[in-house]
Amino acid sequence: MRHSESLTKTLNMFVVVLLIPVVAVNAFTESSSKRVLEISERYMSPKTYLIFDPCNTNKPGNRTVSCAQLRRQGHNLTTQYNITPHDKFLVWCDMETDGGGWTVIQRRSKTEGGGTEFERSKKDYDDGFYNSHSSSYWIGNENIHALTTRPNSKQVLRIEMTRNTKEKIIVHYSTFQVGSKEDYYQLTIGGYLSPNGSDYDALKHQNGGRFVIADGSYHCDSCSRSRISGGWWFTIRGCMQSNLNGRKLNEVRPHTKGLGITWYKRGDSSSYQYVYESVEMKIRDADYGFCTGEMAK
Questions:
Q1: Residue 116 contacts residue 230 (beta carbons within 8 Å)
Q2: Nearest 5°: phi and psi at 138?
Q3: What DSSP line would sit under the chain, residue for residue?
Q4: What tens-digit pLDDT sequence spans the chain (297 residues)?
Q5: pTM for the model
Q6: Residues 233/211, Cβ–Cβ less than 8 Å
């Protein structure tokens, strides 16, 4: 009898020992299940993140940052619009040329006349200026910097120059960027292309150049202040190869190399004296064709 009671106690202890791990496992499983549920609820809730917006269609506050964006929104009239890549300002948008969407950053109009309209101060060039009578203008270095350095904002540059002989020169650069004020609005340019041939790549000599005004603190061994005008990306190795902000001369003037609007044609020294009736510099998103579906046509 005693032996039977002892055996019963032993078996009961064994059952208790077996039950303890089972209870522990159940408790762990229940706790883990709740924890997994908490994690799932916390980290697997549906959320929407805008990781990449190459076409600049979703800007905070529905901001309009370029003429290319306006054109994609259905604006097709070539006129002035407000854009806000940083602070709001007024620009001319070319909505017709080569599919439209061009932000005009510089214009020398036919009605500007000869003179020194672009002989301006550093502040004028930084902030921008506009002549309401001739519609000639410079959009401003700060604005060009903002337009060419915003996220997903690689820009192409198109330059249209019309000589007084009615010859039209068009050049494209697939890379165009202007640095900050602290970097003296340093120019990055590349990827030349022109229907006029390979001899009009004048701006390549200004690649890496800082923006300087002719009447400012300027040092250049290859030219002097008396032979340049306006504000441009003047460089020591090619300070007179191009200057679209030079004086607008109405006739050929000998010995004025680099003084007027200048765009050097390789191998043609007479191109330094070309007289230009009008000039426009305009930029557009490099992926504009992709974003508008033009590439698929």
A1: no
A2: -125, 125
A3: -HHHHHHHHHHHHHHHHHHHHHHHHHHHHHHHHHHHHHHHHHH-S--------TT----GGG----HHHHHHTT----EEEEE-SSS-EEEEEE-SGGGS-EEEEEEE-GGG-SB-TT---HHHHHH-EE-TTT--EE--HHHHHHHHHSTT--EEEEEEEEETT--EEEEEEEEEEE--GGGTT-EEEEEEE-TT-GGG-GGGGGTTPPPEETTSS---TT--GGG--SEE---TTTTTSEETTSBB-SS--TT-TTTBSEEPBTTBGGGGG--EEEEEEEEEETTHHHHHTGGG-
A4: 444 455 455 445 444 444 444 444 444 444 444 443 443 333 344 444 344 555 655 554 567 899 999 999 999 999 999 999 888 999 999 999 999 999 999 999 999 977 789 999 999 999 999 998 889 999 999 999 999 998 878 999 999 999 999 999 999 999 999 999 999 999 999 999 999 999 999 999 899 999 998 766 555 545 566 667 899 998 877 678 999 999 999 888 877 777 899 999 999 999 999 999 999 999 999 999 877 665 444
A5: 0.78
A6: yes
Reading the block at residue 191, the tokens are 């990827």
Tokens of 20: 């303890």
Residue with tokens 């040329």: 97
Q: Scanning the structure block, which residue is given the tokens 């602290």?
A: 182
